[in-house]
Design goal:
heterodimer, A: about 200 residues, Gyrase A, domain 2, Alpha-Beta Plaits, 2 domains, B: about 950 residues, alpha+beta, elongated
Amino acid sequence: MTAEPTSPLAGWTDRLAALAPALIVAERPYRSQLTVRVSDPDAVAAMGSALGVAFPPVPCTFSAGSGPFGDVEVLWLGPDEFLVVAPPGLQTEIEEVLRGALGSHRGSVVDTSAQRTTVVLEGPHVRDVLAHGCSVDLHPSSAPTGTCVQTLLARTGIVLQVTGADTFTVLVRSSFAEYLAAWLSDACVEYGVAS
Amino acid sequence: MTFRKPTGGEIDRHTLLRFTFNGVEYTGHPGDTLASALLANGVHEIGSSVKLGRPRGIVAAGSEDPTSLVQIEAPFPEPMLLATTVELYDGLVARGLAGQGRLAPEPDPARYDAKHEHCDVLVVGAGPAGLVAALTAARSGARVVLLDEQNQAGGALLGVDEYLDDRPSAEWVGDIVAELRTTPGVLVLERTTAFGMYQDGFVLALQKRTDHLGFAAPAGVARQRVWRIRTKQTVLATGAHERPVVFADNDRPGIMLASSARTFLHRYGVLPGSRAVVFTTNDSAYCAAIDLAESGVDIALIADARPDAPARLATECAARGIEVRAGQVVTGTEGPGRVTAVSIGDTRIECDTLLVSGGWNPVVSLFSQARGKLRYDTELGAFVPGEELDTVRAAGSATGELDLNACARQGREAGSAAAAAAGFTPGGQVPLPVSDSRCTSRSGLVVWRVPGADDASFVDLQRDSTVADVLRATGAGLRSLEHIKRYTTIGTAHDQGKTSGMIAAGIVAEALGVELAEQRPTTFRPPYTSVSFAALAGRDRGELHDPVRVTAIHPWHVANGALFEDVGQWKRPWYYPKPGEDLHTAVLRECRATRESVGMMDGSTLGKIDVQGRDAGRFLDMLYTNMMSTLKVGRIRYGVMCGVDGMVIDDGTVIRVGEERYLVTTTTGNAAKILDWMEEWLQTEWPHLDVHCASVTEHWATIPLVGPRSRDVLAAVAPDLDVSNEAFEFMTWHDTHVAGVPARVCRISFSGELAYEINVTAWYGLAVWEALMAAGEKYGITPYGTETMHVLRAEKGYPIIGQETDATVTPQDLGMSWAVSKKKPDFIGKRSFARVENNRTDRKQLVGLLPVDPTVLLPEGSQIVETDRLPEPPVRMLGHVTSSYPSAALGRTFALALVRSGHERIGETLYVPYEDSLVPVTVTDSVLYDKEGARRDG
């Protein structure tokens, strides 16, 4: 017998789809996520080469690219803290590879894949909806594509990535995911979605 | 009789709006406020005063009005709104108030929200100065936000009939607004009041978005919005309020500020009455008098307090047959309600309206909130911005300037300077308008009050506070305006003293014989105008009031009828009642099933922290009272954490995952706090340690499987795992597969029973739970909640942090000296254990209590005393009951308690006052069930 996984927003698929066209919202579940603490430049570079994606050199940004683990993103979360995000099912291999790259340097690698789930938001109102609950300036001049910040959306902590002109990616702690979905649904009422 | 002019004003005479006020039906037009519509119908009396019950009317035309408070009854009850700021809509039902309204008993069906906005230049006020400032900043390319509390831009221009550059002022305003609206990066918000200004350019504003639509307001649109604006630079073009003069019986309906009457005339086409007396100390009221006279109001007299009337304006009045008397003041009024006559010295003049002007108060509230210093302007008789701030500039009549061209110039300079300070270079210069206005002179006389009946001379009309009250305060020795404000309550009503504060300060200065320039004005505080709690709450209500955190297994709990307990923000299953069961019967069933066969709970909320690094063991040795570095890989140890004071702050298990890696668990409520605690020590005291911590609380779903048949259930779903006692010892862990899913299984027990804790990636929590339920079916596996968990652990004397402890309890008090290392050179809290206080033998210690009557359930929190009769107070309290339950295993009730010298008292009888009696209880060891630990291995 093999158990099937359930994602934090599995029960919200239809309700989130109903927010279109005001807001196109979709969960991207089960992605591989690893919390990395590292500050040694050699170790940072080694990890980047192992993934085929250089770690973001600038605070509040993320880098993205393709390598042996497919499309990988590396999110800057703090002065020595990063989140490596990769397609589902690769967390064990990536943990091993990153640990190898870290070598004897100070740091840590932790599988946090199920700690957060990913929600992709897009549409012409996306900045408006986010501005109802997020105090960060999301104007393109202030938060261009490639921006990545840890902040609050309403009353839940999130990691927010600006991934395109009108597209954002939100990473939210799994236990807060349904709150986030309920909040997004309510915020979309202003933009023509039935309450 | 109608007081509506046939033409003029920003109203739509072709559309009739029906409304009801104080039970009478009236009509008005789109563009009206409730106040203007009432005045058009000849209604001046709005309500009565809060303390004295005196009739009160409409004093001003805007948000500075001290008196026209109304209660809206329909479409939805809303208290304490000003008739002067309620835009009229069809079907409105309202009534006047005597100072207090009533909140609706039913929930407000309207939506409210908030929005964050960021800009380079924020301009508050869309009068001439604000418009020019905003356009100047916008032309430089800056991101600009322009706020105005009215439903249309124009500010003071809305209340006059001036021509700017030889065309109606509305055209000039319209052109600027049109350019602003089409400039990218500019946001213009009407009906939006900046009500709070805070540090670092943070400004709160309330936008009334659909209030004016009444019954027609669309349901999906937030009725009001709180804008949370962060700006680099701010221009305050907040204008000025006309100031009254205080005299005897100055509170009657029909007594109105002169400029407000002019506003009602020009903006709404409404006449304030038929025959008016004007009382002024400055030029501006002359314009009101002349405009009203030209509209057909009989101006009986202008009493000018100055020794000489202004020659040019006096000539214009004479040409219209208006008598002007210089050096005269109003000394009293008459009337059953509305004013019917005015006394000027010995002269008595019949009238239905008295227009008053005592000069102008610049609106400096936001400037003061921004910590700008105010300066007293002796010529103006008012406080004005007294310094330049790096990020906040005032412009226009907010600075005391009253000439339109000069106000616009200030706006242009402020807009340009603000844009430059935000890093923008000027764009095209905005031309300054030239006005045809007659009244711009500042040559006023500062008059606070006309001597007369002090107890009928009202300073704050809303608070019913009089000159007599002010003089009583100064007579009692009060000198500070802040103290006098609180003593008299002047300036504490809905209007925050917009018309009364300055006058109160002036009367105080006169009474004390001091210069106002040396007086410190009272501090202006948010909100500038009233803001409803509903607006502040926004969408944070109902299910969104506070985040509800749920585990991966939550849907199963809901589907299976669990009742939930809130633990912090988490929803945890409390118990799973079967039909007909209450809490006690359900919990007794869950406890019995678990102790006799097998039970299972969702423990996913438990805090989990990954601790990695070469110094992880050293670090944990410092955090816990017991030794962790000696733990072998594959093993688990229970540990206690103390604060620096030696008091227990948390407990949990530590799993050694690898040579340089541990997994620490915390209590549900302390997960974030303990991670912060770890980071604080690592970052501030021990940065040399090679340790990193990461929260993995939500990465794992955690399922305790508990009871003598738990081994059988686990064996059925974990075929790779040798579950025998020899292969899988107590306090060890194994990685394996459970229901085909990679799992870490720990042998930990919080009940004394044979128990396992199954950890899987949270995605698989629900499926593994269901697999365990299926595998346990033949053993009657019983899901249980937090209540049963509490009972099971209490029977074993295991404390719960926060229930048995309250930041005054040491590990020794809990009977856990065994968990406090004697070998370690140091750990957090160690030093405190040597303190005399910590070694007293009469500390409160954890014990069990068995009521002599085994059916008596002691209330948690009960006090414990020594004697079977209460002595005279004060009665010595020995401690209190921390936990109390009926127990299926013990066949009776029991309790845990913290009791003075508790460990020495085992076997004694103590007493618990309960209802009207003293309940005898026997003190026992805290472990009440299976003292030998025989059940641990199944």
